[in-house]
Write a structure and sequence with these properties.
Blueprint: H1 2-28, E1 31-33, E2 51-53, E3 55-58, E4 65-68, H2 70-79, H3 92-119
Antiparallel strand pairs: 1-2, 3-4
Length: about 130
């Protein structure tokens, strides 16, 4: 019986330590509670965390070490409707450059389609894609 009591006491100490750590991180703003009513997921069984915490990652384009803050995660997931399974892969500068690159590709493709339609007599039929 003493063994079961010791295990229970150890588990209680561990839980108390975790609770103190969470409270400290909440005070510092490094941990923010999740409003699971606002979180979007396409998963059948989504794993929605209790808290957002700062996440370190390396930008896939420039290799820079970055931190995705709990505050930015809360905005992304709860206000902008990002899926909870989404994770950062690019720093802010590389995200901006990628958006600009994609916009240029889209603009170029639309311009090409306009030119093809013009060559086909303007009706959009008869041109090759």
């Amino acid at each position: 019986m003493a063994s079961a009591r010791k295990k229970r006491e150890k588990a209680e100490r561990r839980e108390e330590k975790r609770r103190r750590e969470v409270e400290g991180l909440l005070r510092e703003g490094k941990l923010l509670p999740v409003d699971d009513r606002k979180v979007v997921s396409r998963s059948v069984l989504p794993r929605i965390p209790e808290y957002y915490r700062d996440v370190e990652f390396v930008c896939r384009d420039c290799g820079k070490d970055e931190v995705w803050t709990a505050r930015r995660q809360k905005v992304y997931y709860e206000e902008l409707g990002g899926e909870i399974e989404g994770r950062p892969v690019r720093c802010a500068l590389c995200r901006k450059l990628e958006r600009e690159r994609k916009a240029e590709v889209t603009r170029s493709m639309r311009e090409g389609m306009r030119q093809m339609r013009g060559e086909a007599g303007g009706d959009g039929v008869g041109g090759t894609l």
